[in-house]
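Notebook B, p. 112. Complex prediction, attempt 2.
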Amino acid sequence: MSGAEPVSLVEQKLREKGFEAAAARGVVKVRATPDRLRELAEETVNLGFDHLASVEGVDWPQEGVVEVVYHAESYREDLRGVLVEIRVRVPRDDPKLPSLIDVWPNAILLERETWEMLGVVFEGNPDLRRLLLPPDWSGPPPLRKDFKVVEEGTYVEVE
Amino acid sequence: MLRSSEAGGVVYSRLIAKEGDESTYELFIGPQHPASGHMRFIVRLEGDIIVSVDPDIGYVHRTMEKLAEGREVIKSIPLLERMTIIDSHNVTLGLVRALEKLLDVEPPPRARYLRTLLSEINRIASHLYGMGIAGIMLNHSTMFMWAFGDREVWIQLAEDLSGSRLTHTYSVPGGVRRDLPQGFADKAEKAIRYMEKRLRDYMAIFLDNPQVRARYEGVGVLRKSEASRLGIVGPNLRASGIRYDARLAEDYAAYSELEFEVPVREEGDALARMLVRVEEIKQSMSIIRQVLRKIPDGPFFSEKYLRLLPPPLREQVAKTGRVKFPGVFASLKLPEGDAVSRVEMGHGEIFYHVTGNGSTKPYRLRVVTPSFRNVILFRYLMPGHRFMDFPAIYGSLDYFPPEADR
């Protein structure tokens, strides 16, 4: 990790804007609510984190939420060891978030994957189509915990 | 909501797949096509000018993230290395680093050097693969056959080191699986001298060839600001003038103790991307030489886990230089919490985020591969070019479909 200084600087700047931020091991972790997500994202871009490394969803069925996790990174020399992690919780039965493709353009495919795999609808993304799954695929979103993988036995029975 | 203006250096309208009217011609390439790999492109053409390209990935999707959630975490190493089989050590090194952060274990110095060694061997092999495929896409079959033939040299070196040709499963949390075999340094030196000669041949027959230059120069130009905003990774990023490499950003393996340059070019066209790869092969060879000169003595596996082994097995590890895993290793419990890691592969930066919940299986294992991050370039770079530029740009991006699909 290239120095703890930029990490605490980023943490401090996000705190000044009124977000809960905590830094650990080069990652600045921020929690946001869906209505403040866009504001936080724009703030992160202004700090130099101009693209996303990842958008993912984590399903927590006991709590009834899907947690969408964004990881933003920067190519600037002073910030390259730092990652900003944004976590947003959305209700599991009606997961909706604003799309961030006008903030981070490379979210366009990442959001599409999260929509397909966890059923989170990104409002405003014009491209929510199947990406990795076959077009005729049906069933619950596969990365949710209630989707069970059916494994074949060692021996496949021949009819 | 999408602006078609150039806000922040990116032309947003280029990212959207267009339908077009009756004057556009819709061309489906792949998914089983020698030039497309295992993926399908929906290309819309006006005359022979590309209007839009819709990369339809997913043909080899194997649900690796979901499968990894269903098994003990140590078993996800051989699972995930199958997504980029040509670069398998670099793929799993990221996962191993994330697990080490989560399990709070550090590899001993010798293991860090051995990891660097296999990573660089893999990087050279991966670049040779990419250059060979780029050659055949321009109908330059000599380049294809030479690069694939010379790849064998590096695959055999990797086999000497790890015991298997392609799926090495070399790094495990806490260290590596095998020690450096005897006589390895001589073999590596021989391979490096051979490769140095061959790289001059490659330049003469391929990259300095006027016909290849005509296909590559000024084609598929990606500007610096666009590359940064689109989050492009790997040689494609560095060919656009951004000096970024996960080897510098993330402290892993022995890179902080070795000297190497990160090749950067300013042009951002297809030729620059190819030349960056050639330079990276040279840098990798220099790293291999340094590793073999500087490698420290000592254990190659963490003391914390060696203590888990029964005494006779521990003796055997010291004697043979190989770790045979007892069952207790497969039931390592992942503590609650999460860890991220980034590692530079041949294709670019791979990102891992592992969430644990106290069980032996990861609660969520997220991986974003370099090819998945670069696939946006098909949409972004192609429009406006002639159709004949399609294979030239595709080849120069070094895109690997199974990796994007996972």
